[in-house]
């Protein structure tokens, strides 16, 4: 993939600071889709009764957009705490798989660095970190750049928490923001990130199985069961196809 203004490639001379700055620069296009989504979440939370303090506490401690939208959707009085915890856990199970995929790149890191890196991991920073590691490996460089990954992750984290808080602050002044169609922002961004990891149809078959099963379960049932169903189906498909290779 050729370098562009929004997608720079590493060189052997890059220092940790320049790698960190490269991560910030590369994730700027992602923020175009992320910031409206964060504002929408904040506005929805405020309209459900969440305060300006509660919103950044939730998004800062549970840095995972999908489960946060689910939690806001369930928010009410009385607060269904156990239901919110259960649904959040189901949706966030994908982070187990994402963390496992990062493990080969982070084996050399001490826990004091690896654990914060995993805490700040989200869909976009995970995809960008994996894609960058593959590019570095192709150029003969050490595969994983922690400084680059943290530049991406911390930028996304700070902006997400800040703009969800801003959305909560201005939320009472807005009507139904879902009608504006901003809900497609994150899926569109993540599809672009997945395109950077595309290695052909054969390698992507588990993705397609996971997508098909998740879509089917979503159509036939209620709740967030489509998330673990899609993840399990993708893992099973990957296991059998890898056994054939």
TrEMBL record:
Annotated transmembrane regions: 23-43, 146-171, 177-196, 208-241
Name recorded for this polypeptide: AzlC family ABC transporter permease
Predominant subcellular localization, coarse grouping: membrane
Membrane topology recorded in Swiss-Prot or TrEMBL: Multi-pass membrane protein
Keyword Thylakoid: no
Signal peptide: none
Protein family (similarity comment): Belongs to the AzlC family.
InterPro entries reported for this sequence: Brnchd-chn_aa_trnsp_permease (IPR011606)
Locations listed in the record: Cell membrane
Domain of life where this protein originates: Bacteria
Record's keyword terms, sorted: Cell membrane, Membrane, Transmembrane, Transmembrane helix, Transport
